[in-house]
UniProtKB/TrEMBL annotation:
<dbReference type="InterPro" id="IPR003439">
    <property type="entry name" value="ABC_transporter-like_ATP-bd"/>
</dbReference>
<dbReference type="InterPro" id="IPR017871">
    <property type="entry name" value="ABC_transporter-like_CS"/>
</dbReference>
<feature type="domain" description="ABC transporter">
    <location>
        <begin position="2"/>
        <end position="249"/>
    </location>
</feature>
<dbReference type="InterPro" id="IPR027417">
    <property type="entry name" value="P-loop_NTPase"/>
</dbReference>
<protein>
    <submittedName>
        <fullName>ATP-binding cassette domain-containing protein</fullName>
    </submittedName>
</protein>
<keyword id="KW-0067">ATP-binding</keyword>
<keyword id="KW-0547">Nucleotide-binding</keyword>
<dbReference type="InterPro" id="IPR015854">
    <property type="entry name" value="ABC_transpr_LolD-like"/>
</dbReference>
<dbReference type="GO" id="GO:0022857">
    <property type="term" value="F:transmembrane transporter activity"/>
</dbReference>
<dbReference type="GO" id="GO:0016887">
    <property type="term" value="F:ATP hydrolysis activity"/>
</dbReference>
<dbReference type="GO" id="GO:0005524">
    <property type="term" value="F:ATP binding"/>
</dbReference>
<dbReference type="GO" id="GO:0005886">
    <property type="term" value="C:plasma membrane"/>
</dbReference>
<dbReference type="InterPro" id="IPR003593">
    <property type="entry name" value="AAA+_ATPase"/>
</dbReference>
<dbReference type="Pfam" id="PF00005">
    <property type="entry name" value="ABC_tran"/>
</dbReference>
Length: 264
């Protein structure tokens, strides 16, 4: 379970560029919750994920994971529990290393790396079936350098790596936004499969409202640094994009503005 209590973050405090990114986030994710996150430009979506991952220190509030206060833990300490996929396919994998080496490293997440960490025989046998599931032809290219892969192949691999050792929480930050529509759809299907298979607790930021409605069991909308709408189950599934836009206007008193959403 993930629990955020009164989480606040202001960037560049006391300067002309001061920005209140999170103004008091209260959020509880139960085990197995797959929550999609939407909101306008600068609503605080990425900051929310960054604060959970420990990229920046909290100003105030508490973040708990499975009952443990992780608020003061460093980013590498929290990385043991978290899987994360970013928008940029270049992040999350090592371009100069082979597919099999990347996977072997992902498998050792949170463990102390010995001097000789090489890929074991067992792993060489274990990874191809997992790669085959991605259906991107990577299972026969285990020794290929990751830098040679397409953006979609790389995102699918990153997703596999982020979930290879079951994370307590999976953070997806617009992880299909940089892909062409067909590849994006494939990676989203994979996301659904992997999350369901492993019953992963997941937070997925997306600018695509249709995806936000279709995927997951719960949807939250952020505005001006906090959650303004939280809907789950049947009510969520029956939503339409116009419903969401109307909801946003009702709660925020303004028009929904997200450049990337309008371009999608
Ligand atoms: N490292 C930072 N330094 C200064 N300001 C920041 C930083 N990160 C985010 N912000 C500011 O905090 C606010 C929230 O940003 P955030 O990236 O979380 O929004 P978002 O909801 O993800 O928006 P978008 O959909 O436009 O990416 C914005 O005004 C942003 O400019």
């Amino acid at each position: 379970m993930l629990k955020l209590s009164h989480v606040k973050k202001t960037f560049n405090k006391g300067t002309v560029t001061e920005k209140r990114a999170l103004t008091g986030v209260d959020l509880v994710l139960n085990d197995g919750d797959f929550v999609t996150v939407i909101g306008g430009n600068g609503a605080g979506k990425s900051t929310l994920l960054n604060m959970i991952a420990g990229v920046y220190p909290l100003d105030s509030g508490v973040i708990e994971l499975d009952g443990k206060d992780i608020s003061r833990m460093t980013e590498p300490q929290r990385a043991k529990y978290l899987g994360r996929v970013f928008q940029d396919p270049m992040r999350g994998t090592a371009a100069d290393m082979q597919i099999v080496e990347n996977l072997a490293l992902a498998k050792r997440r949170g463990l102390h790396r010995g001097l000789a960490w090489g890929v074991t025989k067992e792993e060489k046998a274990e990874f191809p079936p997992l790669l085959k599931k991605l259906d991107l032809g990577l299972d026969t290219r285990m020794e290929a350098k990751v830098g040679l892969l397409s953006g979609g192949q790389r995102q699918a691999l990153t997703l596999l790596m982020a979930t290879l050792t079951k994370p307590k929480l999976l953070l997806l930050d617009e992880h299909t936004a940089a892909l062409d529509p067909k590849t994006a759809s494939k990676v989203l299907n994979l996301t659904e499969e992997i999350v369901a298979e492993n019953n992963l607790t997941t937070l997925m930021v997306t600018h695509n409202m249709n995806d936000a409605i279709r995927l997951g069991n719960r949807l939250i909308m952020m505005h001006e640094g906090h959650v303004i709408y939280d809907v789950a189950g049947k009510e969520k599934k029956s939503l339409t994009v116009p419903d969401l836009l109307q909801k946003f206007e009702e709660v925020s008193g303004g028009e929904f503005a997200n450049d990337r959403m309008l371009l999608s």
